[in-house]
Amino acid sequence: MADFLLAAAGFVLATVALGLVRILRGPGDADRIMAAQLLGTGGIAALVLLAEANGVPAAVDVALVLALLAAFVSVAFVESVARSTADRT
Amino acid sequence: MNLVFDVLTVLAVCAGAFFFLAGTIGLLRFPDALSRLHALTKADNLGLGLIVLGLLFQAEELFVALKLIGVWLLGLLAAATVTQLIARAIQPAGLRD
Amino acid sequence: MAFDAGLAVLVLGVASWTIAARDTFAAVVGFVAYGLLLALIWVRLAAPDVALTEAAIGSGLTGGLLLGASTRLRRTESLAVGEKPAAALRAATIGLCILVSAGLAAIIPLLPEPAPTLAALAAANLVATGLGNPVTAVLMAYRAIDTLLEVVVLLLSLLGVWSLTPDHLWGSLPSPHYRADSYETVTFVTQLLAPIGILVGIHIFWIGSVAPGGEFQGATILAAMWILTMLSGLVDAPAVNRRWLRLLLIIGPVVFAAIGLAGFAMAGAFLAYPTNHAKLLILIIEVPVTLSVAAMLTLLVAGPPERSSHR
């Protein structure tokens, strides 16, 4: 079970890595803002799986903090982009 | 009983991982930023929900299970609202008449 | 094993991309991604306290800080991108980097195995401190003076940021003005997330005594929620010369230092705790320090005052 969950976490991370490649390459800021969301959701999934697989129950707390801070960083990114478009107009 | 739980966990986690893969494929293949945002948010969060469901069967005590559900709900809430924000940034709300 | 190797490759890839990124916004995005992945590595190494700190401060809050800096540098960015350092300088930099990497690669396999550690000693004395989490015991009991100095350093760095204020604006409002519009999406996001965030912050702070967590992680979450409310325009940044703000900033270090000095009377040394009151004293220190550090981090991200208080 632990090995299976670890493999699942690895699989989720692989999909996140693939998504990152697309997002970070994507032209323009709009795509890049999504990186925080992608890593947020993928990171929570991987952490929750690792909590069970590694026997580190506190990883669920880390997932909680990750959810909040990914949202915060996304809002900060959006406000920054919004200001830059406002500055340019 | 344990075997039943284990099988359920494996099924749910596999389904969740599949949805993560689907989300990434959407991210790679969809033509514009807004549809990529759809793929990213909906598929990934559904995947997360299924993974959390699978792990609920492995939880030892009630508090751990409640915390897992809490993490999922918070992730869902945050993703749903922040995605709206990102969508507005990509395309300001100039409504089509 | 494969998982760890894959994670390491991913982290290296993201780090390389961040360094090679051409504009500061992209670099900040890469930095935040890198920090979140590092948190995964810490969990893998069975260090959840460090993972919490990395996710909260190392990635989230520092990302916000760098984003503020990137926004302020936007006007000069095209000039900076156009600069090209001399070939000799680039060659020297590459040579130095290779030297340092080779040195590290040579030394690390030579480190003693198993690594010398005080973990057994720390765990043995845990009962005397009344805490359940050895990391918190190290931070607040065994090496409390380091924590006190960290808090003071944060305060000094805030003063450094404030010293960038133009003379005529001294004492006024930091950060650009964000409009609040009650139907805006960002207002809704804040009204939804901020209360939950505050609860989570208090929870992480409180369980720090028996499980991974603690005052710095809790303070960071509280700071992130405050910054969120400022970003959405629901709450304006406090003017830097407000007395309540300055009191909030210093109450943490002052209480910490006061209890430290009282340690001379109570148990014979600076920051020594008498055995049966250790946990109570640590709690009395932690609450104001959490509030102060939250305020410090918020003001660090808000930046130097740049708007006049008089409209």
Please describe the topology of this protein:
The complex is a heterotrimer of chains A (89), B (97) and C (311).
Chain A: H1 2-25, H2 29-54, H3 59-88
Chain B: H1 2-29, H2 33-56, H3 62-90
Chain C: H1 2-20, H2 24-44, H3 48-72, H4 77-82, H5 87-107, H6 119-124, H7 126-129, H8 134-142, H9 144-162, E1 173-174, H10 185-206, H11 215-231, H12 243-267, H13 278-302, E2 305-307
Antiparallel strand pairs in C: 1-2
Helix pairs in contact in C: 1-2, 2-3, 3-11, 3-13, 8-9, 9-12, 9-13, 10-11, 11-13, 12-13
Q: How would you describe this structure to a colleague?
A:
- The complex is a heterotrimer of chains A (89), B (97) and C (311).
- With 89 residues, chain A is mostly helical.
- Chain A is built from three helices and no strands.
- In chain A, α1 runs antiparallel to α2 and α2 (29-54) runs antiparallel to α3 (59-88).
- Chain B has one domain.
- Helix content of chain B is 84%, strand content 0%.
- In chain B, α2 runs antiparallel to α3 (62-90).
- The longest helix of chain B is centred in the last third of the chain and has 29 residues, at 62-90.
- Chain C is an all-alpha fold.
- In chain C, 70% of the residues lie in helices and 2% in strands.
- Chain C has 13 helices and two strands, in the order αααααααααβααααβ.
- Chain C has helices at 2-20, 24-44, 48-72, 77-82, 87-107, 119-124, 126-129, 134-142, 144-162, 185-206, 215-231, 243-267, 278-302; strands spanning 173-174, 305-307.
- In chain C, α9 runs parallel beside α13 (278-302) and α12 (243-267) packs antiparallel against α13 (278-302).
- Chains in contact: A-B, A-C, B-C.
- Chains A and C meet through α1, α2 and α3 of A and α1, α2, α3, α10 and α11 of C.
The strand line-up of the biggest sheet of chain C is 1-2
Computed Rg of chain B: 17 Å
Q: What is the H/E string of chain B?
A: HHH
What integer is the average pLDDT of chain B? 87
What's the helical proportion of residues of chain B?
A: over 70%
State the helicity of chain C in percent bands: over 70%
Strand fraction of chain B equals: under 5%
Quick take:
The complex is a heterotrimer of chains A (89), B (97) and C (311). With 89 residues, chain A is mainly alpha-helical. Chain A is built from three helices and no strands.
